[in-house]
Structures are given as C-alpha cells and as structure tokens.
TrEMBL record:
One of its GO terms (molecular function) is 3 iron, 4 sulfur cluster binding. Keywords: 2Fe-2S, 3Fe-4S, 4Fe-4S, Iron, Iron-sulfur, Metal-binding, Oxidoreductase, Tricarboxylic acid cycle. The gene is sdhB. Residues 150-181 form the 4Fe-4S ferredoxin-type domain. Belongs to the succinate dehydrogenase/fumarate reductase iron-sulfur protein family. Pfam families: Fer2_3, Fer4_8. It comes from the Bacteria. This is succinate dehydrogenase. Its cofactor is [2Fe-2S] cluster; [3Fe-4S] cluster; [4Fe-4S] cluster. Its EC number is 1.3.5.1.
Amino acid sequence: MAQSAAAPKQVRFIITRQDDQNSAPYAEEFELPYRPGMNVISALMEIQRNPVNSKGEHTVPVCWESNCLEEVCGACSMVINGKPRQACAALIDNLEQPIRVQPMATFPVVRDLVIDRSRMFTALKKVKAWIPIDGTYDLGPGPRMAEKKRQWAYELSKCMTCGVCLEACPNVNAKTDFIGPAAISQVRLFNAHPTGEMNADERLEAVMTDGGIEGCGNSQNCVRACPKGIPLTTSIAEINKQTTKHMFKRWLGV
C-alpha cells in the first residue's frame, strides 16, 4: 500500500499586535509553509500577502518597518523570542518555535511592530551628534585623522540607530530620561573627529545634565545586544573620563 506524502513543514509565529497607540496589545498566531533561507522579514511579507491567522480567519496585515534587508539601516528592530535584534538577520532555521515576535517595549508602539523612535533621535540632538560646518561652499580637504584613531572611530560609526541597545538597557524606560548608550557613544565619535572636537565641550556639557551619563547603571547589556558589535561600554567609560576632566577644568577655570 502506497504511503501518503509527508505533510509540508510549517513555521509557527505568535505576533504581539496593537491596533493603535491607545489600544491594548493582543497576540495573534500564524502558520506558514517553511522555505529554506527564510528570515522573519520574509515571513512577515508572506503574512502581508495572505493575512490569514492559524484559525483560518482573515485578519488585518501585520505592520512593521524595514528598508535595507541587510542589517544596515536598523529599521526592522523588534523583539524575537525575547531578544531585541534585527528581523532581517533572524533566520528561521536558527529560531526556536513557536517564534514570538513583539515590538521593542522601550519605545511607544504606533501599530503592531512599528514603534516611535523619537526618544533616541531626541537624545542624538541633545548631544549634537553631528559635525557642524559653516555653509555649503567648498571648504577644501578636511583635516586628516590619525590611522590608529580612525580604526576605532570607524567601529563607532557603524551605529545604525536601531535602538536595540536602548531596549536591552534596564536604565532606559518610561520612568527615566536616560539618553542611552548609543548617544553617549556618538559623543565619543564626534569628539574624536578633528572638526567635531571644536564642539567637544558642548557635547560633554550635554551628557553631564539630567538623563546623561550618570544614568548608566553599568549593566553592560548594551554591548552584548548591539548587532554591530560596537564597544559601547568602552565609549561610556571614555566619556565618563572626559566629563570628569571637563568638570575639574570648569571648577579650576582652565
């Protein structure tokens, strides 16, 4: 007697959803046919094309953010099986099922997995995380950076403002105004730049205010969670040293 063909492998998802900013979150389960090389983003795309949950009910497509799909833009940050990470780099073959997908809790939810990252961008504005230039005319070649400094500065420049380090940090929450490790690391980056160092004191003053570097509890979750391997705790230690020197200079009137 001929045996029936084996049933196709299925992938189970339990997705935390939220209709809008004022709605209560709820969980919805989906089952998808397995395909080799699947990641969480391709699964979400499949749900978007055919929004039917595991009960066979037609539902509203899941909302999420993504852009580059190669772990560069930072847009697709979410919590996958309890870990904040990039959905584009989360391969189904490496995930335990059912795969639980949630929005990052540190940021307000806009809808489903879409979050409002304003807190992070406000922090970057607070510390002046940019190189100011006077006008758009040709200023000629910029100052050269020593190769030894350039090598570690390049590592800091890999930050893609994904927000994963803020999600992992226990000191970043709705009850605190801590700016988080990403902004502090950017202070180190721009203070090291030959042009950016002209505004170094302003950045140090910014991280010395409420919600600045004093908010770090040294849990070191950030450096373990960072998808780009940025030495965030090293940056925090360096900025702590810089702010201490700046404070003594201010007291001495130097």
